[in-house]
Specification:
Elements lengths: L1 H41 L1 E3 L9 H5 L13 E4 L2 E6 L6 E3 L12 E3 L4 E4 L13 E3 L4 E2 L15 E3 L6 E2 L13 E3 L4 E5 L2 H4 L18 E3 L13 H47 L1
Parallel strand pairs: 3-5, 4-6, 5-7, 6-8, 7-9, 9-11, 10-12, 12-13
Antiparallel strand pairs: 1-4, 2-3
The protein binds 2-acetamido-2-deoxy-beta-D-glucopyranose (6 copies).
One 2-acetamido-2-deoxy-beta-D-glucopyranose binds next to helix 1.
């Protein structure tokens, strides 16, 4: 009887201990999400009315229950933040690198705002990211190559920003990528074939994904940079210069012929004169 009681006590202690350990880990991950959202908020210079729900109390526990959040635009799953949807929310400011603390984030949509500055490269730490929409903002700098570390990415929408530099070819290695739009930026260089063509040779993303970047070139856009000379212009210049040189040569030949003809005529005249004198 006594031993049974002791065993029960030990079992109870074990349960309590493991529970405490579990909740410590739980608090830690909750802390990551809180740190993430607090960072996101503090990087914003102007927060549309909706973000008044992002109170300091609310930010301490971003997820109430398993799927609810008191914070506008925040989606939870199993007590963790899995989506941030703040499209067209009148946000200005920058994207905080703290975003990478939302380690289970799957959906990020902060499109159609007035966000500026770079896309933080540590966005590549978001291993479960499925969809990223940063379109219609004023973001500048390069497209971070680190995005290619988000292996589950299905959709990358960066259209209508001020992004510059080349498109990292590593993005073409994302196996699940079904949607890709970097149109209307300031990107330059050759379009990576891994994004324009599939491994089987068919087209992967068409020109609507790439248009509106004046110095981006290669299939599916025209081969030469639009800012440089088009193929038609090059052929035209070639033909025109050929024609000009043809005319010049022809004229020169005619002039030479006429001069030598006159020379001959003069000489002939002299000879006949000499012959007449003799
Ligand atoms: C944000 O996007 C979702 C779907 O992507 C759309 O249903 C919603 O209307 C958008 N919100 C605003 C404010 O445009
Ligand atoms: C988490 O946020 C803190 C505070 O903003 C930051 O210093 C840290 O780099 C972030 N962690 C990651 C993985 O980005
Ligand atoms: C991204 O957001 C814009 C508007 O904010 C929308 O038009 C576009 O369809 C979205 N892209 C994706 C891949 O959902
Ligand atoms: C985040 O990614 C950077 C590289 O982009 C890496 O150096 C860093 O260790 C990562 N941090 C975490 C917490 O994963
Ligand atoms: C991609 O496909 C186009 C059209 O089929 C073809 O002209 C081009 O050579 C291909 N590029 C590469 C690198 O395979
Ligand atoms: C490009 O592809 C998209 C999606 O696959 C399609 O909706 C669109 O009509 C295509 N545009 C052109 C110009 O082919």
């Amino acid at each position: 009887m006594r031993t049974r009681k002791a065993v029960l006590m030990v079992a109870l202690l074990l349960v309590l201990f493991s529970k405490r350990k579990g909740s410590a880990a739980f608090a830690q991950t909750l802390g990551d999400d809180a740190m993430c959202l607090q960072g996101v908020l503090s990087a914003l210079a102007s927060k549309g009315g909706g973000l008044s729900s992002w109170t300091s109390t609310g930010l301490k526990t971003p997820c109430l229950g398993s799927s609810a959040s008191s914070l506008m635009g925040v989606g939870c799953n199993n007590n963790r933040v899995y989506s941030i949807t703040l499209n067209a929310s009148k946000l200005a400011g920058t994207i905080s690198p703290s975003l990478a603390n939302c380690t289970l984030l799957e959906t990020l949509d902060i499109s159609s705002n007035r966000l500026e500055g770079p896309i933080p490269p540590n966005i590549g730490n978001l291993s479960y990211l499925v969809s990223v929409n940063l379109s219609n903002n004023h973001l500048d700098g390069n497209i971070p190559v680190e995005l290619s570390m988000c292996a589950y990415l299905n959709a990358i929408d960066l259209h209508a920003n001020q992004l510059s530099g080349p498109i990292p070819s590593q993005l073409g290695l994302l196996q699940r990528l079904k949607f890709f739009d970097v149109s209307n930026n300031k990107l330059f260089g050759a379009i990576p074939p891994t994004l324009s063509n599939t491994s089987t040779g068919g087209p992967r993303f068409n020109m609507s994904s790439f248009k509106g970047n004046s110095d981006l070139y290669g299939y599916p856009l025209p081969v030469e940079p639009a800012g440089g000379l088009s193929v038609v212009a090059i052929v035209g210049i070639g033909l025109a210069s050929g024609l000009v040189s043809l005319i010049v040569t022809f004229t020169a030949a005619c002039v030479w012929l006429r001069v030598t003809e006159q020379g001959f005529a003069a000489q002939e005249g002299k000879i006949s004169q000499l012959m007449a004198e003799a």
